[in-house]
Amino acid sequence: MDYELMVIGGGLAGCEAAWQAARCGVRVTLIEMRPLRRTQAHTTDQLAELVCSNSLGARAIDRALGLLKEEMRRMGSLIIAQAEHTALPAGDALAVDRERFAEAVTACITTHPYIDLQRVEATSIPDVPIIIASGPLTTEALARSLVQLTGEENLYFFDAMAPIVTAESINMEIAFRASRYGRGEQEEGDYINCPMTEAEYDRFLNALLSAERIPLRDFEQSDARFFEACLPVEVLAARGRDALRYGPLRPVGLIDPRTGQQPFAVVQLRQDNLAASLYNIVGFQTNLRWSEQERVFRLIPGLERAEFVRFGQMHRNTFVNAPRVLDESLRVRTLLTKRDTPVWLAGQITGSEGYVGSALTGLVAGLNAVCYLRGLPPLEFPHTTMTGALLHYLTHADPRHFQPMKANFGLLPPLEHPPRRKRERHRALAQRALHDLEAVLQTIAHLRASSG
Q1: What are the pLDDT digits (tens) for 297-338?
Q2: Would you tell me how many other CB atoms lie within 10 Å of the CB of residue 110?
Q3: Residue 319 to residue 402: CA distance in whole angstroms
Q4: How far apart (Å, rounded) are the C-alpha atoms in residues 88 and 79?
């Protein structure tokens, strides 16, 4: 029996979603506005065009993206299969010939008998089962429809992301736990604090001001008013020597237990996941190059050996407050809408970062749409898998501080008896993940086998 599904967006997530549904016998209408209307970032009319790097990250499963790609490969991902088909020599990374990759994905989509590709602009959300994968440059008209669907307070148009580090890499012989004036839910304090002497502050400030930045693109510069509301830490620092000390690095209400005194300045880190394995550097949204972030931010006392799972960024990116808007199937929560027909979101609009994470959400949304259309419950991915852990983060993070996230081992529940060496620990986490994924793979195989 055939079913109908609409997908908006012909990027990685939209193509993956359409492909997964079509493989299960669902007739899909895929909407892509190019070439009728172009974006400021794309240069071709091909589907799944890679607009930034041509790398999909590490291959090895003891790396977070490597594990996520392996899970997706086992689930039958179109994007991973075509990336492997068009791969270039890149050491331990999966890099592709971007033109051949886009051509290969476009050919798969346009030749599939169950996918109808329509080159039109979507300006509203039709009252049909639909997956919205419109990407970080969602048009104003479609964004207005998303606002009507989810509520204005749940849709954002820029990333202003602070770096995230692993808790185990913070030097707690220097850093200390405390909340300002002793306030907070935890007895020992809700924040990890990295105290600075005047000399340490000046050294950090000088390095920050001289660090190399990422140039803004034209369409980001046109929205520069955003940066006044949420300034990059390096821009704030340029306003005067004490600007940071009276801003995110203010030390008031904090006493260093080693000295019994208030530090000259304090960098605070806030818990970023339920397992307390990840912490973000508060107020450190930045436009520094990633290598510079690593160099400069490791000058902060207590972060000398910080392991960064996400670097700070500031760029144009439409995304929803996923913990408020989505359930783990990536369906918009029914309490938010007045619709009887479901809406799923996929791609960077969910808050998933990077090529692989975007494609993953398309895979999940596509398969869960099939489940809905067949009257089946959505897929349940164990939180011990990288897929399940990322979905859980997106839909259960603190909505007050939600920011997009990429795959990282800090999202996974810890092992009962973890190996001491990090690489061995990551391999053990990966082996557990792939073992626990097996039950989901059987369900997916059944969905495809019963398509015709």
Answers
A1: 999 999 999 999 888 877 667 889 999 999 999 999 987 777
A2: 12
A3: 10
A4: 15
- Nearby residues of 413 by Cβ (< 8 Å), 6 or more positions away: 275, 383, 384, 389
Q: How far apart are CA 347 and CA 349, in angstroms?
A: 5
What are 302's two structure tokens? 């207590």
- Which pLDDT value is given to residue 140? 82
Taking 70 as the threshold, does the pLDDT of residue 70 lie above it? yes
**C-alpha span between 317 and 323 (Å, rounded):** 17
The model's pTM is 0.73
Write the DSSP symbol of residue 152: G
339-348 confidence digits (pLDDT tens): 889 999 999 8
Q: Residue 17: name the closest of 95, 109, 111 by CA.
A: 109
Residue type, 259: T
Q: Prior bond to 35 cis, omega within 30? A: yes
Contacts of 265 (CB under 8 A, 6+ apart): 195, 196, 201, 244, 245, 249, 250, 251
